[in-house]
């Protein structure tokens, strides 16, 4: 249909629209060029990449993981560590042969000098016939070390434990430049297959996930609803689960754009720092942030879709432990994107509050001292909510305030524990570690076991003397309420 010639006002409006679009494109281009320039400047200021950043071990891909067995995975894993020794440890530059480098065979933090290298997958068997099985999934940049205390507890209760090293982890940070969340999901399926092979149904099957592992545990549980080939878990226990992360991770890929040029290979890294922790990477590649964002995006979409379809009714009960102040993952996403959508299936959410008895209010950044107004009892929920908090604003004595599912009434009970005066909150990384953990504990049982006790450091002195920034060393790495966490877990673990 012929609409006729545009009128003069129409032509004027179109010209203005095109001009505005060109201006916006120019502004966006200037912004992008400026951002890339600042990124390149920042890259050049940091230390150079080392062998453990540039070497990428060849892991099994998702198809091989789905086809393979536990023994296949262990065989490949053993080969990976041999290759890391050949390509990294034996190729170190003289300046990298230091006591604080986990990749130097003469260092006190060299993992292979310990009685057990907790970077590797492992299985624990009880003394008698197992009463059930549990799969443990560690977090991003982490290793199976992070859940070893919970593994021992399950084993003592008669469970067979399968703790897998997720692809890209435990070897060198460069491994995370190539890993994908689909690889981690395939490794999760492999670990569950092995757990069910060792302990067939109907004996209970649990999955415990920490941080990124929590997202993988939940993703697997939803996949098992539709796929009869996947063993259905009877219970999920999530610790600081990565249900949502900051929006920065959404655009992390842009930060790595300059890495397409060899001269700017460091752009593939958000941080390049010394590797002094024997069981966790300190350096962090852009790809790791991107994969975490993609995993949480797909996970949240999956939760919302299944809520509309009604299939969340078939999820197992979920018990979650989480710190209200969590710098790594989103507390609001945990509540709004997951728990607010759950059916009434016996799920629990336990939140550890910040220490209300400290007098640090003026020193907190704006928005940090979150009031919990959105999570305190006052409306009916499909899950039981527990807030572990101070009995009053001037007391270090701790109480649990519980709102049962379907009720608005609040029950308060003392837990017989106190918030340590020197701690203002828990942290994302602290929850699965007791205070006597040799590496991360505030009061380690064996301060010499792993060459360094990161959690016991309470240090003051001049700046610029240490191999790591003070933020890393000041972060709380163990949980003063770990006995409470274990007690709550015991309430859902069948004997």
From TrEMBL:
<keyword id="KW-0472">Membrane</keyword>
<feature type="domain" description="AB hydrolase-1">
    <location>
        <begin position="134"/>
        <end position="292"/>
    </location>
</feature>
<dbReference type="InterPro" id="IPR000073">
    <property type="entry name" value="AB_hydrolase_1"/>
</dbReference>
<dbReference type="InterPro" id="IPR051044">
    <property type="entry name" value="MAG_DAG_Lipase"/>
</dbReference>
<dbReference type="InterPro" id="IPR029058">
    <property type="entry name" value="AB_hydrolase_fold"/>
</dbReference>
<dbReference type="GO" id="GO:0016787">
    <property type="term" value="F:hydrolase activity"/>
</dbReference>
<keyword id="KW-0378">Hydrolase</keyword>
<protein>
    <submittedName>
        <fullName>Alpha/beta hydrolase</fullName>
    </submittedName>
</protein>
<dbReference type="Pfam" id="PF12697">
    <property type="entry name" value="Abhydrolase_6"/>
</dbReference>
<keyword id="KW-1133">Transmembrane helix</keyword>
<feature type="transmembrane region" description="Helical">
    <location>
        <begin position="21"/>
        <end position="41"/>
    </location>
</feature>
<keyword id="KW-0812">Transmembrane</keyword>
């Amino acid at each position: 249909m012929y609409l006729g010639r545009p009128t003069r006002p129409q032509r004027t409006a179109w010209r203005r629209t095109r001009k505005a679009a060109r201006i916006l494109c120019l502004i966006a281009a200037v912004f992008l060029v400026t951002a890339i320039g600042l990124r390149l400047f920042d890259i050049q200021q940091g230390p150079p990449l080392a062998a453990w950043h540039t070497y990428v071990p060849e892991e099994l891909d998702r198809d091989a993981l789905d086809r393979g067995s536990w023994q296949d995975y262990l065989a490949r894993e053993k080969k990976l560590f041999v290759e890391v020794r050949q390509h990294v440890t034996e190729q170190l530059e003289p300046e990298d042969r230091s006591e604080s480098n986990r990749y130097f065979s003469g260092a006190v933090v060299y993992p292979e000098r310990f009685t057990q290298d907790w970077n590797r997958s492992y299985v624990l068997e009880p003394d008698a016939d197992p009463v059930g099985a549990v799969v443990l999934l560690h977090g991003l940049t982490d290793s199976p070390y992070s859940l070893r205390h919970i593994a021992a507890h399950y084993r003592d209760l008669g469970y067979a434990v399968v703790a897998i090293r997720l692809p890209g982890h435990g070897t060198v940070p460069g491994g995370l430049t190539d890993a994908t969340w689909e690889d981690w999901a395939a490794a999760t399926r492999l670990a569950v297959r092995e757990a069910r092979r060792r302990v067939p149904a109907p004996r209970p099957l649990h999955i415990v996930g920490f941080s990124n592992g929590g997202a993988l545990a939940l993703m697997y549980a939803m996949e098992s609803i539709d796929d009869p080939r996947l063993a259905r878990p009877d219970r999920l226990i999530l610790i600081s689960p990565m249900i949502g992360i900051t929006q920065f991770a959404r655009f992390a890929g842009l930060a790595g754009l300059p890495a397409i040029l060899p001269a700017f290979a460091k752009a593939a890294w958000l941080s390049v720092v010394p590797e002094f922790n024997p069981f966790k990477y300190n350096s962090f590649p852009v790809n790791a942030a991107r994969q975490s964002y993609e995993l949480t995006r797909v996970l949240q979409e999956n939760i919302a879709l299944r809520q509309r379809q009604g299939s969340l009714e078939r999820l197992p009960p979920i018990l979650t432990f989480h710190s209200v102040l969590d710098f790594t993952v989103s507390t609001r996403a945990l509540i709004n994107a997951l728990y607010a959508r759950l059916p009434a299936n016996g799920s629990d959410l336990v939140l550890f509050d910040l220490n209300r008895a400290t007098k640090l209010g003026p020193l907190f950044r704006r928005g940090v001292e979150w009031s919990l107004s959105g999570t305190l009892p006052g409306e009916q929920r499909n899950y039981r909510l527990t807030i572990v908090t101070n009995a009053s604003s001037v007391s270090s004595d701790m109480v649990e305030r519980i709102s049962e599912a379907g009720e608005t009434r609040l029950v308060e009970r003392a837990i017989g524990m106190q918030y340590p005066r020197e701690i203002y909150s828990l942290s994302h990384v602290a929850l699965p570690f007791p205070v006597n953990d040799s590496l991360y504990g505030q009061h380690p049982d064996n301060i010499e076991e792993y060459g360094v006790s990161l959690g016991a450091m309470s240090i003051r002195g001049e700046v610029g003397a240490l191999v790591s920034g003070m933020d890393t060393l000041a972060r709380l790495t163990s949980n003063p309420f770990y006995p409470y966490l274990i007690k709550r877990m015991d309430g859902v673990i069948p004997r």
